[in-house]
Amino acid sequence: MANHAINCLETNARGKLSRFHELKKEWGFARFLSRSDFEDTTQGYLFNAKSVFGVEILVNKYAKGERTVLPQKLSDTTYTWRVSNYSTLCSKISSDVFIIGDCKWKLKLYLEGYGDREGKSVSLYLEFHDREAAARIYAEYMICLKSEKNGKDCKRTANHMLSASSTNWAWPFFMSLNDIEDASKGFLVEDTLIIQVEITRIAFVESFS
To answer: Where are the domains of the chain?
Structure first.
């Protein structure tokens, strides 16, 4: 079962429509009225230390747009990838496909970096590997390199919108090669690197008309 977000539209003073949904439950005005004008009794906003606020809501039921669909619960949110025989591997490798939130995912690791970080660091990618699941998917996740000595894991968190045209999100500089190879830090033990990903929240984004 999935929860479908309620799509209410708010029109601000400039006539722009704003959409309420599960990931955006509030809309407002950071600078609605200056405090000096609000407290100026000649303006009429305050009377006997009281003020009245009102709102008019117009719901556009026929607008084209998008809706978010959230799984009720994410089970098995963590995947652990043990990269064995690290020193013998080629420069780019991929994990097996794994499933979290009824979606297929994959990790990609560039052992010697990618782009302008090549030769300086390892690069890590999280790839959405289930293009038929939805037109777009929003994900919140954490990836870490596990330390087997001092418990000081290297963690990175992110949230990103993925789609058929943008299937992955990466950290070109996840960790320097010097830190990876430093035995005292405990990331590379017995020629094995342990990578863990946790996807804490996902939302499918679907078009409607």
So the answer is: 2-63, 71-208
Q: 92, 142 in Cβ contact below 8 A?
A: no
CA 91 to CA 122: how far, in whole Å? Answer: 10
Mean pLDDT score of the chain: 79
Beta strands in the chain (DSSP E): 2-4, 8-11, 17-20, 65-71, 78-83, 92-94, 98-100, 103-110, 121-128, 136-145, 154-163, 168-176, 188-189, 192-208
pLDDT tens for 104-144 read 899 999 998 887 777 888 999 898 877 565 567 888 899 99
Asked if residue 121 lies in contact with residue 176, where contact means CB atoms within 8 angstroms, the answer is yes
Second-level CATH architecture of 71-208: Sandwich (2.60)
Count CA atoms within 13 Å of residue 128 on its CB side.
Answer: 29
In 3D space, the residue among 19, 4, 32 whose CA is nearest the CA of residue 58 turns out to be 19
SS3 130: coil
**In this structure, how many other beta carbons lie within 10 angstroms of the beta carbon of residue 70?**
19
Report the predicted TM-score, pTM, of the whole model to 2 decimal places.
0.64
